[in-house]
Amino acid sequence: MSVFTAVTEDDLARWLGDYAVGRLVSFEGIAAGVQNSNFFVTTTLGRYVLTLFETVARADLPYYLHLTAHLAHHGLPVPAPVADRNNEYLGTLSGRPAALVRRLSGRWLTDPTPAHCTRVGAMLAGLHLAGQSYGRRQPHPRGAQWRAEVAERVLPHVGAEDAELLRTELAWQAQQDFDALPQGVIHADLFRDNVLWDGELIGGVIDFYFAGTDTLLFDLAVTVNDWCTMADGSLDAARSAALLEAYGDERAYTEHERRLWPAALRAAALRFWLSRIEDLHLPRSGEMVQVKDPNEYRRILVARIDGEARLPDRP
Asked: Does the record's keyword annotation contain Kinase (predicted)?
């Protein structure tokens, strides 16, 4: 959620005139994340988040906006989009596709406990179940094909050891039968900074702009890799068990998911190692851009290759 495209106060005030949200009071850029331009917006009637989409094709954006509207309708704490006076979610501001969503309460945390992980696991299962009735389909934009393409782009920019690890891991993952696993809507980026906490409750789940149809287990692996990983890249047993048991209580694991859980963890680690390498070596210019350390996810990938992980032994 960096700022790549500037917005002036006058332009924003005029743009908000098409919404029933009152008059602009203040706004500020959000200096976190790496994909879109985001701003906190306060008006005389409420608090919102404005997103200017930098890389997603305009034709793809209704999928994300209607998805969050669908999930909000099912009771999930997601940023419901605000429609303009023509009942449209998507507009144009500063030459970019733009959307306004309600700002959710709470703050993200850096040191989750097993109790936090329990709530996250249950919430993710609820999201996956609610997503089964979402009528629109769109491929996950950071799926296996993207991983292969980005690997080719970044290989000239990494050392020989990293290049060998990338090639070996891509070849190994290509042999895994992920297509036979349960599929559906996935968030695909459920990191700690995309979950807001209002006390001990989840106040909001944000940033759905990597969402799409893919393997549910991959989404779970993305979540576990962030919420349950220690500094050396290994999994914290207590947090991992709490999250996986809570998820399994809501959506039972299949036997094929049990077999491919270690592979899903590796695929999820590779996805974020690749994106961070790309952000570091092939960045886009922006006013406020946060580039995250690729080595964090390299450590996680190596730990998942070397380690043994299992889903909970329950139906």
From this structure: yes
